[in-house]
DNA sequence: GTCTATAACTGGATAGAC
DNA sequence: GTCTATCCAGTTATAGAC
């Protein structure tokens, strides 16, 4: 090993730890509910390091967190959807997994950006656009995924939007009730929606 | 006119103004993002009146706001659903109205409790339960409404949950993008879901 | 019951030592 | 680059005059 960024301990660098801590805290406590001092403590980093790595302060840290966590979440969900061959079973399995994961984390780890998205929608234009960009990427990725089984692009897009929306809404209800049932019901509805769309595509001459 | 609560001006009493202001501000800026001083200013009430009428402070004010606004929103949506005879058209019309209302308010006035619900789900047990109670009442009311057209109670309940979830998720995406399209897509999906359920109920012997 | 002043604390942001 | 001390505006909450 040379010198420089060798840490002896096997942990990420300060900048990464700050961003990871911010991701966790924003997801659980929201934007206004999370303090920079709290982030520094959770990251085990000195307070000043936040402004060293993120000169734009809380807004810059939050924007990078939204975009990074949003992209990571998209990859995670797509990998989950690709782990099952049949599309309807795949959607059902994805919602069931989300329900179990949510319960396993004490109903804390749902969507990484939804709380912040609602908080900033009317209060911070820069962050609002960041959340909008993330959702737009999710819809585009979902549209590509559904296009494998539903030829009409408009239908595929509508299915992708619906999956994201019903998942987001289910997260709200499941977290509030501390109950997996809403997420499971969401999975059943999304499966039904996809099944109908595939059937519809099977008989185009109507 | 006698004496006592005659105000000369025709405006609600102080307590009501405080609660109304809190409803508006929580909906737009969230729980942590709204200060009591801001609420007092918006209500045109002295700061001390908040603690006079709500001795439990911010938490008590928020809890009463969640429950009151939640019940009012439920009545509003049900009245909207009852304004059209055909159930599928009714659902479509309700989502279209929500989309237009959201756009008309600068994408600010969506669900009155969703932002707060996500913020408090992991941080304040009293408020988390208040939001859960409101959502449970919404599901129960929706179940009764769908039961008029779908005999199976489980299906009616699932439809009610799905409507609320897809509406909540659509609010998140529409507010983030400042675009009515997600809410419109949500309306189409919910209409499709209901149509399938009604058809299913029409041929019970399968 | 109305309203003001202030206490006690936490927020984001900055300056500057090392 | 790391870390501490501090500033000032903001928060919730309370005390007490009127």
From TrEMBL, chains A, B:
Superkingdom of the source species: Bacteria
Swiss-Prot/TrEMBL keywords: DNA-binding, Transcription, Transcription regulation
PROSITE patterns for this protein: HTH_TETR_2
Name of the featured protein: TetR/AcrR family transcriptional regulator
One Pfam family cited in the UniProt record for this chain: TetR_N
Residues covered by the HTH tetR-type domain: 12-72
DNA-binding region listed in the record: 35-54
């Amino acid at each position: 090993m040379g010198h420089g960024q060798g840490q002896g301990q096997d942990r990420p660098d300060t900048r990464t730890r700050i961003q990871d801590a911010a991701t966790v805290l924003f997801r659980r406590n929201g934007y206004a509910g999370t303090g920079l001092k709290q982030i520094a403590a959770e990251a085990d980093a000195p307070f000043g390091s936040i402004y060293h790595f993120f000169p734009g302060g809380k807004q810059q840290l939050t924007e990078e967190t939204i975009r990074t966590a949003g992209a990571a979440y998209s990859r995670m969900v797509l990998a989950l959807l690709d782990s099952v061959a049949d599309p309807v079973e795949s959607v059902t399995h994805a919602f069931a997994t989300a329900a179990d994961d949510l319960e396993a984390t004490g109903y804390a780890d749902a969507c990484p950006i939804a709380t912040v998205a609602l908080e900033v929608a009317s209060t911070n234009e820069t962050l609002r656009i960041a959340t909008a960009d993330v959702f737009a990427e999710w819809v585009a990725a979902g549209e590509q995924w559904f296009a494998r089984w539903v030829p009409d692009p408009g239908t595929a897009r509508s299915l992708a939007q619906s999956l994201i929306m019903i998942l987001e809404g289910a997260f709200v209800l499941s977290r509030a009730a501390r109950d997996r049932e809403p997420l499971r019901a969401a999975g059943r509805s999304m499966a039904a929606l996809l099944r109908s769309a595939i059937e519809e595509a099977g008989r185009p001459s109507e």
